[in-house]
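Dear colleagues,

As part of the handover before I leave the project, I'm documenting each prediction I ran so the next person doesn't have to rerun anything. This entry is a single chain, and its sequence is reproduced below.
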Amino acid sequence: MNTIIKKVAVLLFTITLCVLNVLSQTDEETVRIKIGGISINSENHQVLDTCQIGVYYNYTYPQKSESIIEKRSDTLFLAIGKNVSVFLDPLYKEKLEIDRKARFARSRKAKLINNEYSNINDILEVININSDYKEDDPGDPVQIYKNRNALLVSSIYNSYVDNIQCDQMINQMHEWEIIEETDTIMGYLCQKAKINYSGRNYTAWFAKDIAVNDGPWKFWGLPGLILKCSDDDGLFEWVAIGISNLNADIVKDKVVYEKIHIKGFNNFVKRMTNEIIVSFYNNDVLYMTNKEREYERVPIEIIYD
């Protein structure tokens, strides 16, 4: 638990620095945190709602390397407004911008840039002890917006090249089975509920004392905030580890999104995140290419309507 608390503290400190760096404005203007999208320019944001509550979740999920399945965990963030929420990696935007600036700075140090190779395996022999090898992995690129009034869940993938959106009306979120069983999570009395979505059975614990109809990932539809949710196979789990009141804007980037079905969206994200960008030097030449991950994530959605 101490490790989790330290992790949340580091995240809060880092996000504060990000806000001060990205949203520096004149003394006459009010500095507001912008949650969502990847643009660091507030003029490129569409404000969807005002965020009132922020919840950090420890997300545990499986990854597969060859035939071995291992568990990993990340800290994700749910920003909740009156009608709209967004669930995302809270550091992805800043890491993406840091990596972009670092690649630009590295390119200025080189006399020539070589990006002719599509995979690092083609040029492994060029790497040496002085190559200053670097891998760019900014985190989870998917941001999930819920519009509770419209009963709409929108999954968005933003990058400097592609902007993809998948809209879903998830009817199963009206089909929770509420069970007369309770537990205490983060000091809140929670009630049990069960649901089946996209091929998996889930058990959730929601707090009636937090009268917010929302939760992690795509989950919502209960008379209280979902503080814990896990699938019955023990593969995926979201557990709340921090809650705070916020005064921020929930935003998305003002770009043209390509709309696709959920299966196509998941396949696209898998393809885009299967590799990471790597760069290194050799004789004043900066090589930039891709490297396949040593693992792949186990898909969370396995049945599509």
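The two ends are 39 Å apart (CA to CA). Confidence is low (pLDDT under 50) at residues 1-29.

All the best with the project,
I.
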